[in-house]
Specification:
This protein has 684 residues and is mainly beta. It has a single domain, classed as TonB-dependent receptor, beta-barrel domain (Maltoporin, Chain A, Beta Barrel). Helix content is 7%, strand content 53%. It has a 22-stranded antiparallel barrel. It has a five-stranded mixed beta sheet with strand order 3-8-9-6-7.
């Protein structure tokens, strides 16, 4: 019986046809590190590429799920709070991933409304329209500004010229999964192309077992136009809107009913609208110029009103809307790419950004607040010989709220052989806080001060050193990327109460050192088989910064309820926020992916994830868990048209919590239970 099973497995794994090469075996060319198209072996940072085949095989319904396949990344499923994606941890009470730059076709998704971070519930592109995702593992403020503090996620959508006809897909499954997508594209006159997509996704959310409930609804419409103005000039225009409606609030722990006097259950409504235009001019065979303008506006509303009579409270501010009201961003960027000398390439650019926001609850009485950011950057590549590639870059960014910061980067890659490369590099980066951190004026319904802005807030600083190895054995159809890193973060920001009688405010309180390694191994033993293995191991150590020690010595100061003694002596409760810094990334995490083309039009994929204990917030943690996802798909032809039917199952191992602490005594975790659905796609 075992021999028969082994023979059957060999039949399934062997190539279906020598002419059907399902996957690319070459290492890709990437542009997300230096903004120059480079081989991975020449780039000054490690990059993971998630291509269309991986996106489809993963079975993911939301973008954040894909980053489980990138070493060093952490994510959790959306629940009563938006999903979050972090690299090497360093989390806090900001729910919107502020330390990593996320781009779609060059446009940053960071929003002044969402505390200078990314709202992963409002991603402006359907997964089906993503061509690839380039993930820079490591700081890249040199190329993409201060929000690229820990890394960059660059999402490249499908070129309109590659989309023809209409595609309709739907998914239905457990937990009331209901997803519908309509996509189409075609010619726009003689010299243009377009693509359009509408998508709606919804489900009943995660399983709640204590004091909350969950639901999720998301709608997006987006399009992209491409037009050839001349032989040398082209124009790209993208636009769209995405809306989300999610259940927020809490239940009375005894009656399990919504409590109208204390964060009642209600809908949180959020939206993002955007428009972007990009002009590209080819100056010569080795030089080009681009000019980009983007406008985005985000809105949020989770208003509730407290009735002073029924709640028996004195409430001078009965209307509470912590997710409102709106934020807007204008951005202009010009980039010039050219070859100044033999064996040298250079890219430089200038950008201007104007952010504004308004929130009657979080910035009470302040009206509209704004900031302007000017930035200049340059990256150069020099290849003095076939054995050496040197990269040098710098960026200077002036912020009307945070001042000026200079970010340099240098790296040298030694190509020991055509298949083996060793790279040494250093990067310095900065992260400036959100408008809210500088200008907040949040008063609780009873009129007491909750959060105040800190106009003297410094920027976080990162010094990162790395030693990396990249092996690409083409004869074996295998590659290995190993990165060892040492990262030092100075003046980590967190909301604390700096003295008795004061509201909480953002303060620089910690210095953090992170060290470890991560690896990514890929192997394509046959045309029809693709294997991926990721692993990250890291350790973090934290200590009070200079300002942190001053706060610790101030009588009555505390970190969200952690009070210091009357003499200002630091008490053992410091462990709470120390552990947040040191366990905000799992000590060890791994993922594996097997993609297999089977006979008769079938495809199979299997994903496995291992994650150690992690703390997402100060007062909660999630225990280690393992998770297995699988997908089986069948591609068919019907009346000359193509289609696909697929079955996807997530969390085959059963229930686990990815976000909040849970125990038999206090089971308040957000439980990810087994979920499965059927999908059907028809292409016309």
């Amino acid at each position: 019986m075992r021999r028969s099973s082994a023979l059957l497995l060999m039949v399934l794994v062997l190539p279906v046809s020598a002419e059907e090469n399902l996957f690319f075996t070459e290492l890709p060319v990437v542009a997300s590190v230096s903004r120059l198209p480079q081989r991975l072996a020449d780039a000054p940072a490690s990059v993971s590429v998630i291509d269309r085949d991986m996106i489809r095989a993963s079975g993911a319904r939301s973008l954040n799920d894909l980053f489980r396949l990138v070493p060093g990344f952490q994510t959790f499923a959306h629940s009563d709070v938006a999903a979050r994606v972090n690299y090497h941890g360093i989390t806090d009470d900001n729910d919107f991933s502020p330390r990593m730059q996320v781009l779609v076709d060059g446009r940053s998704l960071h929003s002044p409304l969402f505390r200078g971070g990314v709202n992963w519930a409002l991603i402006p592109v359907a997964l089906e329209d993503i061509e690839r995702i380039e993930v820079v593992r490591g700081s890249n403020s040199v190329s993409f500004g201060n929000n690229a503090f820990m890394g960059v996620v660059n999402i490249v959508t499908m070129d309109p010229s590659l989309v023809r006809g209409v595609s309709l897909s739907t998914s239905n499954g457990s937990q009331n999964v209901r997803d519908h997508t309509l996509r189409g594209g075609g010619k726009l006159g003689d010299d243009g192309d377009f693509r359009l997509a509408y998508q709606e996704t919804s489900d009943d959310g995660l399983e709640g077992r204590y004091d909350w409930e969950d639901s999720y609804l998301n709608r997006r419409i987006e399009g992209r136009l491409g037009y050839a103005l001349s032989v040398r000039d082209s124009l790209e225009i993208s636009f769209g809107k995405v809306e989300g409606r999610f259940l927020s609030g809490s239940l009375n722990r005894v009656t399990r009913l919504s409590n109208p006097c204390n964060d009642p259950l209600r809908d949180r409504e959020e939206s993002s609208t955007w428009l972007q235009g990009r002009w590209l001019r080819s100056l010569s065979g080795s030089a080009d110029f681009s000019l980009r303008y983007s406008l985005s506006e985000d809105r949020g509303d989770n208003t509730y009103v407290i009735d002073p009579v029924s709640c028996k409270l004195v409430v001078p501010y009965p209307v509470d809307n912590t997710s409102g009201d709106w934020g807007r961003r204008h951005e202009i960027e010009a980039i010039h790419n050219f070859v100044p000398a033999r064996d040298t390439r250079l890219v430089w650019g200038l950008s201007w950004r104007y952010d504004s926001m308004e929130s009657e609850t979080m910035m009470r009485g302040r009206g509209k607040e704004s900031r302007q950011v000017w930035r200049a950057f340059a990256n150069g590549e020099w290849k003095p010989s076939a054995r050496v590639t040197a990269n040098l870059g710098a960026s200077s960014e002036y912020d009307t709220l945070a001042g000026n910061h200079l970010s340099p980067r240098a790296s040298v890659a030694f190509h020991l052989t055509p298949e083996n490369t060793v790279r040494i590099g250093y990067t310095q980066a900065w992260r400036t806080a959100s408008i809210l951190a500088y200008r907040a004026n949040h008063l609780a319904p009873d009129g007491s001060a909750e959060l105040a802005g800190n106009p003297n807030l410094p920027a976080e600083r990162l010094d990162s050193w790395e030693l990396a190895y990249l092996g690409n054995w083409r004869d074996w159809r295998m590659s290995l990327d190993v990165r060892h890193f040492q990262e030092r973060i100075s003046d980590r920001l967190m909301a604390v109460r700096p003295a008795a009688g004061l509201a909480d405010s953002e303060q620089s309180i910690q210095d953090i050192r992170i060290s470890g390694y991560e690896l990514q191994w890929k192997w394509q033993p046959f045309d029809s088989t693709r294997l991926l293995l990721n692993h990250a191991s890291l350790k973090a150590h934290s200590s009070l910064s200079g300002n942190g020690w001053l706060i610790a010595a101030t009588p009555g100061s505390h970190f969200e309820g952690i009070t210091l003694g009357p003499t200002g002596a630091l008490e053992p409760e410091y462990e709470v926020y120390q552990r947040l810094a040191e366990y905000s990334a799992p000590r060890k995490s791994s993922s594996a992916m097997w993609m297999q083309r089977l006979p008769w039009g079938f495809d199979f994929s299997l994903m496995r994830y291992w994650v150690d204990t992690i703390k997402w917030t100060r007062n909660t943690q999630s225990e280690s868990y393992q998770r297995t996802d699988a997908r089986l798909a069948y591609t068919f032809k019907l009346g000359g048209k193509r289609g696909e039917v697929a079955y996807t199952a997530q969390s085959l191992d059963g229930s686990h919590a990815e976000q909040r602490q849970h125990s038999s005594r206090r089971p308040n975790g957000r439980f990810v239970d087994r979920r499965h659905w059927l999908s059907l796609r028809l292409d016309f």
